Amino acid sequence: xxxxxxxxxxxxxxxxxxxxxxxxxxxxxxxxxxxxxxxxxxxxxxxxxxxxxxxxxxxxxxxxxxxxxxxxxxxxxxxxxxxxxxxxxxxxxxxxxxxxxxxxxxxxxxxxxxxxxxxxxxxxxxxxxxxxxxxxxxxxxxxxxxxxxxxxxxxxxxxxxxxxxxxxxxxxxxxxxxxxxxxxxxxxxxxxxxxxxxxxxxxxxxxxxxxxxxxxxxxxxxxxxxxxxxxxxxxxxxxxxxxxxxxxxxxxxxxxxxxxxxxxxxxxxxxxxxxxxxxxxxxxxxxxxxxxxxxxxxxxxxxxxxxxxxxxxxxxxxxxxxxxxxxxxxxxxxxxxxxxxxxxxxxxxxxxxxxxxxxxxxxxxxxxxxxxxxxxxxxxxxxxxxxxxxxxxxxxxxxxxxxxxxxxxxxxxxxxxxxxxxxxxxx
Length: 427
What we know:
The structure is a single chain. By secondary structure, the chain is mainly alpha-helical. The protein contains 13 helices and eleven strands. Strand 5 and strand 6 (about 165-170) form a beta hairpin. Belongs to the N-acylglucosamine 2-epimerase family. GO terms for molecular function: isomerase activity.
């Protein structure tokens, strides 16, 4: 696809342009409109959607991160004043507390179906999203938020956190028997996101301290050792395991996953701001993570980010899911604010041009969750439209200052100007 090269003499930043902001607002509303009418499963949790936006047939398995992310997204909707969002929040919180929460052994089970637990393991990735959901729900005063926040914090501290490493263990059996031999960055990355949200919701510095320790381990030490390629897989001592072969390509793909480099670029800048800008390594690391991603993983011929690379930096899985380019939009937005340059503005525009041309499903709504190498809709790993979280945040992050989480920035903006009904194209 032809690519326009932005220069320092080109017009101003798109993030400041009213038309661009209105366009992003419209896309966010379309995403909500796809999920609002059909997402609630009356048996608890939320349906995954097929490619046309209808609930997937069969006995619905509800993994915990799907429910928790929906809570987070509809807290965003509630903060923005979207009618009907509070019902979605309550539906998700009730299912997390009364369904996923393990009343016998403690913690939160990975997945449920209509008959109860489907996979009762206790996973760090899932608990990170419970922390995010509870922290977000606290911002809108949900009655379960404080109890859930205290409960999942205790579980993370007592069961998952490994102080000697400054990160969490990956997984346990239902009765907390350890599953040995593996540590993963993905669960710790999302815990970093959730810890920052918990800090913003409570002002408890311990959440921030843990987030900074995880970032130091995974980015300042291990990614720096790899010239800012983020390793995914580690042994129990947090030595990189380059030989790891995936059992689950969705959550633990082999090789490296550049979409996570992009996600970390934004999270590192957010953590830098929340920590008082005292860690000088964070903004420079964010710049390097973004640059490595676009240099090594962007398809210079067709556009889009390859899903995974091998350790020789060659594309391994060559298809192009929606979530890496969504994370790229958020990272480019944060960099454009904290490290403004023609380079970051050019990539911000290129990313959104590609999303608009290839990822947005104008027939059925939402985004295609997977494109093949030629940017055609595909379903090799992702079967429908299960996710609101990545695409929604990509649309909304550029509308707010890059000074914290999206939820907290919306809350602060509306607290400061509660009588204002619209803000430069905000939803």
